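Subject: mismatched residue count in predicted assembly?

I count 878 residues in my input, but I want to confirm that the predicted structure covers every chain. Input:
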Amino acid sequence: MLNMSGMKTDISGVVQSTVVETFNGMLGQNVVSADERGGAAAGDDGRIYACLLLDQARGASANFCFTFDGKLLARTAARFYPPEQAREKTVQEDIACAIANIVGSKVKSCLNKYGHDFEMTVPFVAEPAALPFKGCDTIHLHFSWNDNAGAGARGLVVDFGMDQRPTGNC
Amino acid sequence: MISKRLARLLRKHFDAADADAFIAGLLQQADDDALPDNIRANIRRFPDFLAQVDDSYNELDERMRIAVRNLEMSSEELNNSNFALLRHNIATNAMMEGLGQGLLFFGPDGICSPVYSRACLTLLEGNPADRHICDILRLDESQRADFEPLVGLMFDIDSTALSFDELIALAPHFYKHSQGLQIALSYKPMHGATGALMGILLVATDITVKMQAQERLRQKEEQVLRTLRIAGNRASFVHALHVFQTVFDDMAQTRDLQALRRDLHTVKGMANVFFLHDMAKMLHEIEDRVNALPQDGWQSGLRAIRAEFDVRLGLGIDYAHWLGREIWGMEFEAGHDVISVSTAELARFGSDLHAMLQSGGASPDGASRLFFERVASQSVWSMLAFFETQLSYFAEAADRSIRIQHDSGDEVRLFPDFYRAFFDSLTHVARNIMDHAYEPAPLRQILGKPPELQVRIRTSYTDSSRTQFQLVISDDGQGISFDKVTKRLREKREKIEGRTEADLMQHIFDADFSTRDSVDMNAGRGIGMSAVKAAVEKLGGTLRVSSTEGVGTALTVVLPVLWQAHA
Amino acid sequence: MAATPSSPAVLVIDDHMIIRQVVEQNLKNMGFADIDTAGSAAEALERMAVRNYDIIFVDWIMPGKSGYALMQECREERKFDDVAFVMVTSESDERHMIEALKAGATSYIIKPVLSNVFSEKVKKVLDWLAKRGQKSDVQSA
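Triage response: the counts match. Full output below for your records.
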């Protein structure tokens, strides 16, 4: 049986600090952990989803779903690539998956300290309709950034769920 | 004057009793002219010779004195040095012992030196001298395979581009003490005169007390939450205590296993809401055991389970009672099932009753109804308060957000005692909403729903006679998958053909019906909704569920307004 | 013959473009001028076949052959004895770090790659290279 409340605080902390460190420390952006009510909702277009699974031989499995605002990814890319390349979807998806990889790894290490034996899949990009993780999220975190208009916009939403069954989705 | 020593010598060698007389006599003989000149000269020189001898002796004495004095001084210096060394040792020892930490040194070969602090004997459970650090720390095969090369790298720091601190971060930082003490390990490099690493100092610190303090703090925090939750829900808490006891007693004598299983499940939910986690865990264990009972002859098995958990359950219930007393005082259980009525209301009732009796239109039913509606009833909202508390609690525990709204309808008034079992069973509805209706916010956004799960509650009388009321609890969540329902029904070999979807949906109230395979502390075992149905039917009411996948679910309960207890 | 220590030849291997970009930019900010990149172990081997590098940054987990396996293979060959391998990985588990060191990593950087941490680590790698260079000068003298 899982001790959720202690783990949840730890996992939330790890996700928050890793996302901020990755965006700000490594990619030179200015992203903050935000209250759900803060920040305008990201537009429907240009959203990119990166997901990954954490599996272990015996016990619960877990999953991550990262919802990125395309504008934030484009801005990030612009710091490292020439403008035409920064607008390409493949470039933005690569960034999304790289970030998902880093956050997922850190959470994996954190969970394995609780005695689990999780392995992580490579992050993959998912179409919204094909989102596999309905109804089993346990942690739901928002991150916002200042868009060009100076207003706080919702840049990233991280959903993490632990399925307490040995196999399968919820 | 002749010295005593000389006089002694003269006496000894020349039989001269009186030294002065002897010398005087000798000199006199030198005056004899008959003696040769050289002999007379020698005799005359004899006193000088004696004086020389005396001087020699004196010099010897002096030298002896100096030598002795030198020796004494050296001795004293040696003593002082020894003393200083001893003090130094005592100070070092005191330092090493006084910190209460285990200190030891090991070199490139991993072998520990004979210099170590006494605390090592207790903290590391043995004398570390001349043993390998991997043995002292009781590392297993794989830990050894990691630590030995790491030590090698630390002493050959040029072979890597990492600093000592970076390498040491990979070393074991905890020692697994056989008596359960929490021993933290840290390492310090010891560099020699050339700056090269000569050895590593291992510091073992007992942090058991610190960790115990942290655990106590966590327990205190939980205590605070528990007290607040209980204090804010007095009537529900007292009722819960009553239910705990009833279920506990039932285990010894019940004939209806299904009902017991439902009650255990309900009671476990209540325990969790009041942060009585130990009780909830125990009830979960009992639930597992009860579920594993065989179809036939379960009674003896049940009695055995009760006997096994007798003491623990008793303690759990006693603890809950103690909490109540702490908060409200000794008599807290009495006086909870009290309804407050304003004097104005009572006055109005009095005059209405009087008017009714006077007009001759009074009937027993009419008078009863007047009494219940005006005086002896409570708003249904106060009875739903605990359901809302539970819903909020479940949401909070799962870090999800919900919004509960009361829809306009009628303010239904009920006599609480008749409806307790029904309102208790709503815990399962709360559970189901949290487990099944919930969708993650991004999905809700895509579907055009507001980010928080919306739960709406509506109560109304079904007609103007106010003999019956309706309660609708609806949510805008996932809805029930009709496919899953039919699949489950097929597995249970239920008849499906020729029946409407709406009709088949009502099967979710069957015992053992669950479209969810998991069993955990909180999720349904498939008996939740059947408990609700049982409570509703016992009151002579009906309930119905309607759901559209992706849109939401509504539970509609119709119950009579009772003014007399059911038989 | 590899480039002189004042402008070391660097190879960056990672399957994520953005990580290659980040490492490359950090290196350029430090003054490195000779930087090649590869998106897989196979591509890296192709590059290593035509020239020598002084420093190789390698990601641990990649599709196909892992960076760890690549490094292990290279360490078996003498010609890589004076080459610094820096593992760039998101794994922060101690056991993984030790595995990397045992397999021959000269240093490691844990993602996300922060510029100040990066430059500290790379400076130490340059020191390591310098010491190695002196040693091999002495040996060949």
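Confidence is low (pLDDT under 50) at residues 517-525 of chain B. Marking this ticket as 'not a bug'.
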